[in-house]
Amino acid sequence: MSRQLSTVGQERPDGYRTIGEALARAHSGAVISVLPGTYADNLTITIPVTVVAQQARGTVEIAPRRRSAVVLKADAVMLDDLVLRGRDEEPPVRVP
Q1: Are 79 and 70 in contact (CB under 8 A)?
Q2: How many domains does the chain have?
Q3: Cβ contacts of residue 32 below 8 Å, gap of 6+?
């Protein structure tokens, strides 16, 4: 069985425009490849997935307007080469 691979890019018409959209349609074990840019997503991750910057480290920033960038509610989540920013004195990643 092959892994589900999704691509996210703010200006990409043939993929997802937000990381949240890709996560909403992801299956367990999916890989979400993110094109460079700053994304205002507040992500809640509930299944094992990998979210990775498609290019060099630091080319993808997740910087929501409020709260934590990522809330982890799943085991075996990999976030690779991403810059995560929290707001309102929240940590960038929160594990409830």
Answers
A1: yes
A2: 1
A3: 6, 7, 8, 19, 22, 23, 26, 49, 50, 51, 52
Range of the domain at 20: 5-94
Distances (CA, A) of 45 to 12, 26, 93: 23, 10, 11
Ranked by mean pLDDT, which of 2-6, 9-13, 70-74, 89-93 comes out on top? 70-74
Instruction: Check whether 1 has a pLDDT greater than 60.
Output: no
- DSSP state letter for 17: S
pLDDT digits (tens, 9 = 90+) for 59-75: 999 999 999 999 999 99
